[in-house]
Amino acid sequence: MKKTVIITGGTTGIGKATAIAFGKKGYNVVVTSRIANKESEIVADIKITGAEAAFYQLDVTDEQAVAKCIDHVVTRFGKLDTIVNNAGIALGAALLADSESEDLKQMLDTNVMGVFYGMKYAIKAMLKTGGGSIVNLASIAGANGLLYTAPYCASKHAVVGLTKGSAIDYATHGIRINAIAPGAIKTDIIQGAIDTGAYSEESIAAIHPMMRLGDAEDIANGIVFLSSDDCLFMTGTILFVDGGYNAK
Ligand code: NAI
Fold first, then answer.
1. Residue 232 dihedral angles phi and psi, to the nearest 5°
2. Hey, whose CA ends up nearest to atom 34 of ligand 1?
3. 182 C-alpha vs ligand 1 centroid, how far in Å?
4. How far is Cα 224 from Cα 115, in angstroms, rounded to an integer?
5. Is 188 in the pocket of ligand 1 (CB under 6 A)?
6. Atom 10 (ligand 1): residue with closest C-alpha?
7. Distance of alpha carbon 155 from alpha carbon 142, whole angstroms
8. Is the CB of 155 under 6 A from ligand 1?
9. For residue 205, is it within any domain?
């Protein structure tokens, strides 16, 4: 039976690259996004790999909608093998006292509650169908402090906590739960940070020993690995793909 993966926020950046990487591995690929305007484009891009592709419009902050989406996927494909909780936002770029309280609330809602809902309903489904694996999008900001980024750091540290705690909960239930922690990757989120004027591409590149940003495909490859049977003894791991940042 072919494996099935859901990737939240999968029409852009890391999510899109991940969807295509899973397609190349022969998975049924389900991409979700809040906005349906890129539906046909992403489905066509995945189908080029020969994989079955489906799209669901989903706001990950809506718990009932997340539950319904996962139910639909299990009904359609028979089983959910992997969920990649990728949808995330980064708002603001300021010293903590100058940060907007509302920005932190929104980031907690999307980056933490959205990941929690994805995990909760995927785990319920996987327990019924013989297990699976979960990959959450953490960040170097989930294990370190970064300038002008304390609220985002808080949300990504919470993703690490959800990953490690639940990995222990389900270690003997056939569900592996890991996170990937990218350094700065060339996507809309980083462009948004540059657009605030607080950083430049050069200043972001300079925090990495490799002195450059990464590509979405670097992260996609790590996510596919964490999901695969090549690492069946790995759970609760935070895999850094960060141009050497965490070696400092
Ligand atoms: P992106 O902005 O291209 O992707 C984020 C996706 O999440 C977008 O498609 C967006 O529409 C979606 N999204 C946001 N809120 C949502 C919601 N409530 N419901 C459903 N979808 C929603 O940026 P990127 O870089 O591809 O980000 C993917 C993940 O990687 C995020 O969790 C981000 O925090 C994380 N990350 C990115 C890094 C980078 O340097 N680009 C570094 C470390 C982590």
1. -70, -15
2. 88
3. 12
4. 18
5. yes
6. 9
7. 7
8. no
9. no
Q: Are 177 and 119 in contact (CB under 8 A)?
A: yes
Do you know the residue count of the chain?
248
Q: pTM here?
A: 0.98
pLDDT at residue 39, as a whole number: 86
Ligand 1 atom, smallest distance to 141 CA: 43
Check pLDDT > 90 for residue 167: yes
The whole-number pLDDT of residue 55 equals 97
Domain annotation covers residue 34: yes
Q: Is residue 210 part of a domain?
A: no
Whether residue 115 has its Cβ less than 6 Å from ligand 1: no
Q: What contacts 59, CB < 8 A, 6 or more positions away? A: 34, 65
171: number of Cβ within 10 Å: 13
Q: Are 174 and 130 in contact (CB under 8 A)?
A: yes
Does residue 188 belong to any structural domain of this protein? no
- Rounded alpha-carbon distances, angstroms, from residue 142 to 34, 59, 160: 24, 23, 6
Q: Where are the beta strands (DSSP E) in the chain?
A: 4-7, 28-33, 53-57, 82-85, 132-137, 175-182, 238-241
Cα of 200 to ligand 1 centre, how many Å?
Answer: 19
Residue 198 gets which letter from DSSP? S
Q: Are 150 and 93 in contact (CB under 8 A)?
A: no
- The one-letter amino acid at 190: I
Q: Which domain holds residue 152?
A: 4-91+102-183+215-241
Nearest CA to ligand 1 atom 7: 87
Digit-coded pLDDT (tens) for 55-90: 999 999 999 999 999 999 999 999 999 999 999 999
Question: Considering only CA atoms, which residue is closest to atom 11 of ligand 1?
Answer: 9
Whether 9 is in the pocket of ligand 1, judged by its Cβ within 6 Å, is: yes
Residue 123, domain CATH: 3.40.50.720
Domain count, the chain: 1
